[in-house]
Automatic annotation (TrEMBL):
Gene3D superfamilies given in the database record: 3.40.50.1100
Domain of life of the source: Bacteria
GO terms for MF: cysteine synthase activity
Organism expressing this protein natively: Muricoccus pecuniae
Pfam families: PALP
Listed CDD domains: CBS_like
Functional pathway: Amino-acid biosynthesis
Name of the molecule in the record: Cysteine synthase A
Length: 329
């Protein structure tokens, strides 16, 4: 296959059998290697879906002047900026200043107009999402609105879900992943459930997010906090999750997520970020609850290289009272 450009190269990522997780549970646990997308994360899918819909609606025209604005923890911004570059558009990306230095530096490197803002709760007008909306309105630009833009989930329903179904030859018992915007879980879930209603869909959630409580009780209630970036919502259910066919939820601690990150790197040669570690921990929990002999698919969202200054920095880990892997200590 020869891809025509960035857009055409997004997707069709492999499933990787996670040996240790599979051996530990007696199940087959597979990770969708989304770090192999051209922009380095699962958010490349959302980017091409959102911008593709903007083109269909006449809001953007390829290789004609245009600007897209988005508020993001980093990865969606990277995907949007690269996808915009490939079509001749500009990008303005609003990012909380607490995000990893690697993501912010990379956004600047690829030509995005990066606007850093202090971290604020969603109820505050200074929150990065609200700030990005105001900037888009002032510029007359396209606001990507990844949290509520249904083109996000639709792209996963079009691509991620069918890919998993075909790669497993329809033999998949459960799918689990964390939610930032909810697009990956909702879209993939709809595609899998359409093919087999018995596929179990489980939302993975970090502490500090209220989505676990929402699935379990119908009410958004957050407990604790987490160092993971780009996943979990403390006070609001993203629009992409509206009507998503979710069967259950599991809550994963930072310690569990980091343990899986470090183990995947040291024992299986897979360098992934915190959200992927959380997803693998959730897949193990789901596998144990279902019993041996099942096949569970999860998402390896991005590479560990985007978190060198945090998750793989022993000083930072010690400051957060988190475990330091032996090779870093």
């Amino acid at each position: 296959m020869v891809a025509t450009d960035f857009w055409d190269a997004v997707g069709n990522t492999p499933l990787i059998r996670l040996r240790r997780a599979s051996e530990e549970t007696g199940c087959e646990i597979l990770g969708k290697a989304e770090f192999m997308n051209p922009g380095g994360s699962v958010k490349d899918r959302a980017a091409v879906g959102i911008l593709g819909e903007a083109v269909k609606r006449g809001l953007l025209t390829p290789f004609q002047p245009g600007t897209v604005v988005e508020g993001t923890a980093g990865n969606t911004g990277i995907g949007l900026a690269l996808a915009a570059n490939a079509r001749g558009w500009k990008s303005v990306i609003v990012v909380p200043e607490t995000q990893s230095r690697e993501k912010i530096d990379f956004l600047r490197m690829i030509g995005a107009d990066v606007r850093l803002v202090p971290p604020k709760p969603l109820s505050d007008p200074g929150h990065y999402v609200h700030t990005s909306r105001r900037i888009a309105e002032e510029m007359g630009a396209v606001w990507a609105n990844q949290f509520d833009n249904q083109a996000n989930a639709a792209e996963h329903e079009r691509s991620s879900g069918p890919e998993i179904w075909e790669q497993t030859e329809g033999k998949v018992d459960a799918f689990t992943c964390a939610c930032g915007t909810g697009g990956t879980l909702a879209g993939t879930a709809r595609a899998l459930k359409a093919r087999n209603p018995g596929v179990r869909i489980v939302l993975a959630d970090p502490h500090g997010s209220g989505l676990f409580s929402w699935v379990k009780t119908g009410k958004v209630a957050a407990e604790g906090n987490s160092v993971t970036e780009g996943i979990g919502q403390a006070s609001k259910v993203p629009g992409n999750l509206t009507g998503a066919p979710i069967d259950d939820a599991v809550r994963i601690s930072d310690e569990e997520a980091l343990y899986q990150c470090f183990r995947l790197l040291a024992e299986e040669g897979l360098s992934v970020g915190g959200s992927a570690g959380l997803n693998v921990a959730a897949a193990i929990a789901v596998a144990k609850s279902m019993g041996p002999g099942h096949r569970i698919v999860t998402v390896l969202c991005d590479s560990g290289a985007r978190y060198q200054s945090k998750l793989f920095n022993p000083e930072w880990l010690r400051e957060k009272n988190l475990p330091v892997p032996a090779w870093l200590a």
